[in-house]
Specification:
alpha/beta; single chain; 3 helices; 5-stranded mixed β-sheet; Nucleotidyltransferase, domain 5
Length: about 130
Amino acid sequence: MLKKRRFSSGDIPSSSLSDIAFLLLVFFLVTTTVDMDKGLGIILPAEGQEFEMHRSNILNCLINSTGGVLLGEDPVDIAEISKKVREKMLENENIIISVKSHEKTKYEDYIKVIDQLKQANAKISIAETG
């Protein structure tokens, strides 16, 4: 008659399991890339490159909490900033636009204003929020 064979279940060696888990962890940490937000592409001056500007060469650009923009003393639509700044640059080639925003200004509005100033190839100074 046929004899029944008894198979013993194979044991998985658990002594090297922690080594394998550690190697997998290191592998995934090394090979994973993290996307970083680029933010605004503004080149900042090196430390110690501060200089005084004459007030007539500074044009204030104020952004309020609702997204309204004052360019100098005049309210301006965001889409018109580039055109107005180019006109001011024709009058004074040394003009620098000082951008100051309210602390509750939406980030999108701030970016739109900066983009308009970049389109006009303006020199931009970012003032402290207040």
